[in-house]
Design a protein that fits this description.
The protein has helices at about 15-35, 45-55, 65-75, 95-110, 120-135, 150-165, 185-190, 210-225, 245-255, 295, 350-355, 360-380, 410-425, 455-470, 480-485, and strands at about 85-90, 145-150, 175-180, 200, 230-235, 260-265, 290-295, 305-310, 385-390, 395-400, 430-435, 440-445. The chain is α/β, with parallel strands linked by helices. Helix 9 (about 245-255) links the parallel strand 5 and strand 6. About 40% of the residues are buried. The protein binds pyridoxal-5'-phosphate (PLP). Pyridoxal-5'-phosphate binds near residues 237, 264 and 267.
């Protein structure tokens, strides 16, 4: 039995470290080759659970190869691969290699970004990226920000800062967001003790953007009934439609009512580096805060995200001084003063290495490619009989459904839901489901810059073929029974 200390990251174990990480990389590369062409193994939750439950965690396997073989059986053989062109369900992106190389340092050095005395230069790498992003937004030198775990945390912190700016009693505070805004706004309202009713949904227009007229009357109604507009949240890229709310109009209304203006650009934030579509974010510089998910449209591994604020002083609402960590008289710059987290991974390094190796333009080109792809696919789908496209794509999602003749609306919804489940089980393609005005749709979320129109039309062809097969039912029961089963 070898000494357990052989597993510590330490100069004496440099050989063991190199061997273990090298073997892990080789193992992953072998999986890439073996699973090419399939976005998933289609494992059922029951089977995945059983395999994992059978592992006795009190009996270590001892050697690397055994642990890797077990990992394949438990997970990798059936993992979801976001680099496959047929993986078109959620906002998970294929990731860029410089960021993966950065991960070696993030976890190996294991810096924690809460204080300078746990991170040294890493603190300034993060700060430089924050400054670079705020300059792209169009803010001046007073701007600041902090890396977070994701859009959910960024939205929460933004609304916490907004609440910090208010003196009105908590039960009168209201947050205005479009009806298509992200549910993390509602969750944040709960966490902040404002309650579910504090979030006022604002109607959207035909293109599913927040309707400024509806916002104006919602704000006026709130004030007339003694409520206090605490924040207005515009979404720059809604999760379903990629809709970008009219930022200048929303900004003007937020300002007129003295409300904090937050832009949830978790999805659309990548447009900051787009050569061809940066103008879609015009007006973002009028906001008080912006949430950006680098782990969506910047092709970074989860998690990599930031909250940016126009006035860095507002981050003081999350500052707390602990004698042992970041005392008030600390001579050091301490990022924990700006963060809801304490111990915090150096996620910023992934974006740093991406910008240093590839450059921002290359990331913007990746995003432009998937938006071009969505436009081209949507044009094809709109011309197809029996395909209903819910709205023209605005970023890289397409909400659609297959509507064979002779089915009512509920039946169409159930058929499409059954097709999606069947495709997941087969492991051949991953599409998402959503509801639009009470009706069930499918959704393609395209984030793969090397996927082609034919790849994506192939997924739609699979949807139709699978639907036809489901409607026909198993051969032995006859067509009518199958149709009844899937539509029930
Ligand atoms: C994904 C998303 C979020 C949530 O971000 P996470 O990184 O998943 O926490 C918030 N808002 C929008 C518009 C999103 O698309």
């Amino acid at each position: 039995m070898p000494a357990p200390r052989q597993h510590l990251f330490h100069p004496a174990n440099a050989g063991a470290y190199r061997e273990a990480v090298g073997a892990a990389v080789d193992h992953l590369v072998a999986h890439l080759a073996a699973t090419a062409g399939r976005p998933s193994g289609g494992v059922s939750p029951r089977e995945a659970a059983q395999r994992v439950a059978a592992v006795d965690l009190d009996r270590p396997l001892g050697t690397g190869p055994d642990a890797l073989a077990e990992l394949s059986r438990l997970w990798l053989d059936d993992a979801i691969w976001f680099h496959e062109p047929t993986a078109a369900a959620h906002l998970n992106c294929p990731v860029v290699i410089p960021a993966l190389a950065a991960e070696v340092f993030v976890s190996g050095v294991n810096a924690s970004l809460d204080t300078f005395d746990q991170s040294a230069g890493a603190t300034f790498i993060e700060r430089h990226l924050v400054d670079w992003t705020t300059a792209r937004i169009g803010w001046g030198p007073g701007a600041d920000g902090i890396f977070t775990t994701g859009g959910t945390q960024s939205n929460l912190q933004a609304l916490l800062l907004a609440r910090g700016q208010q003196v009105a009693p908590v039960d009168r505070l209201r947050i205005f967001a479009s009806a298509d805004g992200h549910f993390s706004v509602q969750k944040a309202a709960r966490v902040l003790g404002l309650g579910d009713a504090a979030v006022v949904p604002v109607a959207v227009d035909h293109a599913r953007r927040m309707d400024p007229t509806a916002l104006a009357s919602a704000l006026a109604d709130a004030v007339a009934s003694g409520e206090v507009p605490m924040a207005v949240v515009a979404t720059a890229g809604t999760t379903d439609f990629g809709a970008i709310d009219p930022l200048p109009e929303v900004a003007a209304l937020a300002r007129a009512y003295g409300a904090w203006f937050h832009v949830d650009a978790a999805y659309g934030g990548g447009l900051l580096v787009s050569a061809r579509r940066r103008d879609r974010l015009d007006g973002i510089e009028l906001s008080d805060s912006v949430a950006i998910d680098y782990h969506k449209t910047w092709f970074q591994p989860v998690s990599c995200s930031a909250l940016l604020v126009r006035d860095g002083a507002t981050l003081g609402h999350v500052t707390w001084h602990a004698a042992y960590l970041n005392p008030k008289d600390s001579a050091h710059p301490n990022q924990v003063d700006k963060s809801l987290q304490t111990t915090r991974r150096f996620e910023a390094l992934k974006l740093w290495m991406t910008l240093r190796v590839m450059g921002a333009d290359a990331i913007g080109e990746h995003l432009d490619a998937v938006i071009d792809l969505a436009d081209a696919v949507a044009a094809e789908l709109t011309a197809m009989p029996e395909i209903d496209v819910a709205a023209a794509p605005q970023l890289s999602t397409i909400v659609f459904r297959w509507c064979p003749p002779g089915l009512d609306d509920d039946e169409v919804g159930r058929l499409n839901a059954a097709v999606r489940a069947e495709l997941f089980d087969s492991g051949r393609a991953l599409v998402a489901a959503t509801r639009v005005d009470g009706r069930s749709y499918l959704k393609l979320t395209l984030l793969n810059p090397v996927a082609t129109v034919d790849d994506v039309l192939g997924v739609v062809a699979l949807v139709r073929a699978t639907g036809r097969r489901l409607l026909a039912g198993p051969a032995e029961t006859g067509a009518r029974d199958g149709r009844v089963a899937v539509l029930r």
